[in-house]
Specification:
The protein is an alpha+beta fold. The protein contains 6 helices and 9 strands, in the order αβαβββββααααβββ. It has helices at residues 2-16, 50-57, 150-157, 166-169, 172-178, 183-186; strands at residues 39-40, 61-64, 72-82, 114-119, 123-129, 138-148, 198-202, 210-213, 227-230. It is globular.
């Protein structure tokens, strides 16, 4: 498992350098009511800089498992990287840029944990911690393509039966609503623990063409090309057109 993660990370290093393959193929999984088979991602997958992890997370599955209920799950189609305070120049948009606080302590712990915070006092956003323990960094999950538990997602989002797939989890606030993710319940959860109610899985699907743009919805360091998404996927969020491949 760790060896595979190292191979994947090496491939990603080439991607981060701009050496994207001319043609990629994403294995499309039709919208379903049951969760496709998959395995938990290894810790080493996340012990790299967030701009690398953000790319690798595209195509992976976020699943909410609650005892006595069917799982709710979606495929990650959009993510943004936020850099830790050890990086130069600093990333003022990152919650960790001033160092550890009671609020952001999760980011300085072990990789692969959920960092959940509220926005506008009403919505939640979910990040995944990256880098080795003691170094902060995270990936904001911006959009999912619904895969399982769609009826429950619709109820969580107050959507009608004819709602388009994009309406479920396109945008970080909608994503958390769809999976009923909240700070008090999910902040600090180990996403790689078999007993966790929130997990990150790999079902073997591989992303197609990845596009990169500046991050959206922020005021600071908004020009950094740290937003990654699957080209042409209808569930990608944001008003800006997708940028360079």
């Amino acid at each position: 498992m760790e060896q595979n993660a190292e191979v994947e990370a090496g491939r990603l290093e080439n991607l981060a350098a701009g050496q994207l393959p001319a043609r990629c193929r994403f294995i499309i999984v039709p919208t379903a009511t049951t969760l496709p088979p998959g395995h938990l991602l290894p810790r080493t997958f996340f012990e790299f800089p967030p701009e690398r992890v953000a790319r690798l997370l595209l195509g992976k599955i976020l699943v909410q498992r609650i005892k006595g209920r069917k799982p709710i799950a979606g495929r990650i189609v959009e993510a943004e990287a936020y850099l830790g305070p050890h990086r130069q120049p600093p990333d003022p948009a990152a919650h960790s840029h001033r160092g550890p606080t009671p609020r952001n302590q999760v980011l300085f712990g072990a990789a692969g944990h959920a960092y959940v915070y509220s926005i506008y006092g009403r919505y939640f956003c979910m990040n995944v911690s990256c880098e080795p323990e003691g170094r902060a960094g995270c990936v904001l999950l911006r959009a999912l393509e619904p895969l399982a538990g769609i009826d429950q997602m619709a109820r969580n989002r107050n959507l009608g039966p004819t709602a388009a797939a994009r309406e479920f989890a396109s945008g970080p606030g909608r994503l958390c609503q769809a999976l009923a993710i909240e700070r008090t319940t999910h902040n600090g959860l180990d996403l790689l623990d078999p007993s966790s109610t929130l997990q990150l899985l790999d079902d073997g699907a591989r992303p197609g063409r990845i596009v990169v743009t500046p991050r959206i919805g922020i005021r600071h360091a908004a020009d950094l090309p740290l937003r990654f998404a699957l080209a042409g996927n209808a569930c990608v969020s944001g008003p800006k057109s997708m940028g360079r491949a």
